[in-house]
Design goal:
mainly alpha
């Protein structure tokens, strides 16, 4: 059961903007919009190929699979920070109207870091109903109707392995829920940890279109001294171009 409430507060939007590249209309509506990608464009193989071809050129990439990995890393980052973070930190989640979800590039940074424009004017809350049921419904909708279809299209267009894409998502979930949330908010720490346990341990693989929850598979990795988990599979970013390097958590690090 979800209770529809009005919106994120401007303070919440600003907080997301300060920490996570969230599109704050009050700050960016008058900036140049160099590129706007609706999430709905990623629903088709043709749309994904168009986005990948453009990104491949913009990044001056030398490897199409590496370009695809960059796209899914950015996509995963925005799924986590634009939807899961406010769900856990604010007890608010944007209604997942894909027509309202966009990536908007407001600068010419060649590393390609667009802003995420969420549906912050129409959000839900658990209200007086079961919070676990609310989290389950949101997580199932995110992974089954948004993430899995996009990953499937990227795989078909680029041949990027699905296991790499799931880990591209997992690294950001672990980063926020294990490491970053105390810097983001001093409230709702109990809910944040409960949500993390649910997403990684309790959510069935069916929600991801998999036999088992892929997030739990990646939780077994060793950590660096700062708590960052080592990757199980290489994201292939080092293949992007001559300026690219291995990630410090890469399993293939020389």
């Amino acid at each position: 059961m979800r209770v529809l409430i009005k919106a994120f507060t401007q303070e919440e939007v600003q907080l997301l903007d300060d920490h996570f590249r969230y599109y704050n209309p009050e700050a960016y509506s008058h900036w140049a919009h160099y590129e706007v990608i609706p999430f709905s464009k990623l629903e088709t193989k043709e749309g994904v190929k168009e986005v990948l071809d453009h990104l491949h050129s913009f990044l001056q990439s030398e490897d199409y699979v590496a370009t695809a990995s960059i796209l899914t890393k950015r996509f995963a980052y925005y799924i986590v920070t634009g939807i899961l973070v406010p769900m856990s930190a604010f007890d608010k989640a944007p209604v997942l109207d894909k027509k309202q979800l966009q990536l908007i590039r407001v600068d010419e940074d060649k590393n390609w870091f667009p802003k995420f424009k969420g549906n912050h004017e129409s959000v839900t809350s658990p209200g007086q109903h079961s919070r676990e049921d609310w989290v389950h419904d949101i997580a199932e909708e995110i992974f089954s109707t948004i993430v899995r279809p996009v990953f499937a299209n990227v795989q078909q267009v680029s041949k990027l392995p699905m296991k790499t894409m799931w880990e591209n998502l997992a690294i950001y979930i672990f980063w926020f829920y294990e490491l970053f949330y105390p810097e983001f908010t001093s409230e709702n720490h109990q809910h944040i940890q409960q949500d993390f346990h649910y997403l990684v341990q309790s959510l069935e693989g069916e929600a991801f279109g998999e036999k088992r929850n892929p997030l739990s598979y990646f939780q077994q990795q060793d950590c660096l001294k700062n708590g960052t988990r080592m990757r199980k599979f290489c994201c292939m970013t080092y293949k992007l171009n001559e300026q690219s390097n291995y990630c410090r958590t890469c399993p293939n690090l020389p």
